[in-house]
Design brief:
The protein is mainly beta and about 325 residues long. The chain has a domain at about 190-205 and about 225-315. The protein is about 5% helix and about 40% strand. The chain has helices at about 50-60, 285-290, 290-295, and strands at about 1-10, 10-15, 25-30, 35-40, 70-75, 80, 95-100, 110, 130-135, 140-145, 155-160, 170-175, 185-195, 200-205, 210-215, 220-225, 240, 245, 250-255, 270-275, 280-285, 305-310. The strands form 6 sheets. A 4-stranded antiparallel sheet has the order 1-2-3-4, with no helix packed on it. Strands 5-6-7-8 form a 4-stranded antiparallel sheet, with no helix packed on it. A hairpin with a 2-residue loop joins β5 (about 70-75) and β6. The longest helix is centred in the N-terminal third of the chain and has 10 residues, at about 50-60. The structure holds 2-acetamido-2-deoxy-beta-D-glucopyranose (3 copies). The site of one 2-acetamido-2-deoxy-beta-D-glucopyranose (NAG) has 4 residues, from loops.
Length: about 325
């Protein structure tokens, strides 16, 4: 029943395929109990005018049943949600709701940082956001990189907003086709390493060119690592969920960063895994940060096999 989940600070977003409820935000309480905070039968927004809402329904610019939230992040008193444009009729790809509010049913989402920035007609604006991360300084790093269908004409990018100034635009970095395909790229998940001016480690879930992308904020450059540990595992595919055969082969997807070390000289570890797969791998951030080293082949000897997960079949 659950088709997508995303976890942040003990919050969980669930997107269902059942008819009555589209999705909910659930809090994890101690002792692994769940508490439903918000629930939607469809996602709707704080339209600027009733006329714009009616026009969007009429033109097909807003098709509520086509909107699926995939990313969730919590910062101070707001819950941020991303909704990739997997289909037509998604007027907003990034939005938020205030955390403490009495209305928990079908709460209207507020476009973030603005309606204008969610206007897909211009490449400088957000096109299709799968997920985002917020660093300790309140900078939100947004992955605008779902390029797996024909709804976008714009190259994938990483956009930074400052939450300390109402989501003020900070920087936008457009990925070259060599790093992420404009036609077939799929920037899926991101972790932030705040050392040395800030690095982002990003999974490109593209089934044409999967890999791990590194972005340096100081250099304003990005590079990509490709390895067979980032491919789907054939023997992990082909299983049954509720009488439905799942045969898709999904490459590198999940990514995590080891906690910030107390000793600044200590390197952090980046973990990654393919969605279709049982194996978890790790690599030191010191390897990823070295662009020159990543352009050769020796970095592959630093990939470590961490272990196998055995219950992935039921995901
Ligand atoms: C969607 O939100 C707008 C306000 O932004 C409201 O006028 C409209 O009635 C809502 N639609 C539904 C079906 O609740
Ligand atoms: C978030 O909360 C912290 C601690 O209360 C505060 O220092 C900071 O200014 C807040 N940031 C924003 C963007 O509201
Ligand atoms: C971190 O990585 C660098 C570069 O590989 C290495 O020189 C250094 O010794 C590492 N630090 C620690 C504490 O292992």
């Amino acid at each position: 029943m659950i088709i997508r989940t995303s976890v942040s600070h003990g919050f969980l977003i669930l997107s269902y395929s059942v008819v009555q409820i589209c999705c909910s935000v659930v809090t994890l309480l101690p002792e692994n109990r769940f508490w439903v905070e918000h629930e939607w039968s469809f996602l709707n927004f704080t339209w600027p005018t009733l006329g714009k809402y009616i026009a969007a329904i009429g033109s097909g610019a807003y098709v509520p049943e086509n909107i699926v939230p995939t990313g969730l992040k919590v910062y101070n008193d707001s819950i941020y949600l991303s909704m990739p444009r997997f289909r037509s009729g998604v007027p907003v790809t990034l939005a938020y709701i205030p955390m403490d509010t009495s209305l928990k049913q079908n709460e209207l989402l507020i476009p973030f940082p603005s309606w204008e920035m969610n206007d897909e007609r211009f490449c400088a604006n957000l096109q299709s956001v799968q997920s985002m991360e917020i660093d300790t300084k309140g900078i939100m790093w947004v992955l605008d990189g779902v390029r797996i269908n024909d709804y976008y004409k714009c190259p994938p990018k990483l956009v930074l907003f400052d939450l300390n100034y109402n989501g003020l635009f900070v920087n936008s970095y457009t990925f070259s086709n060599e790093v992420c395909l404009q036609n077939g790229g799929f920037l899926k998940d991101i972790v932030i390493d705040e050392s040395e001016g800030g690095y982002a480690y990003i999974t490109d879930n593209s089934n044409i060119d999967p890999g791990l992308i590194v972005y340096s904020r100081t250099k304003n450059r990005a590079w990509k690592l490709r390895d067979r540990t980032m491919f789907p595992e054939l023997w992990a595919a082909n299983f049954m969920v509720k009488n439905q055969r799942i045969e898709s082969l999904v490459p590198i997807d999940g990514i995590a960063l080891s906690p910030k070390p107390t000793d600044e000289t200590e390197n952090r570890t980046v973990f990654y895994t393919s969605l279709t797969g049982f194996d978890l791998f790790a690599i030191s951030s010191s390897v990823l940060k070295d662009e020159e080293f990543c352009r050769k082949d020796r970095w592959r000897s630093y990939v470590k096999f961490v272990g196998k997960s055995t219950d992935r079949q039921t995901e």
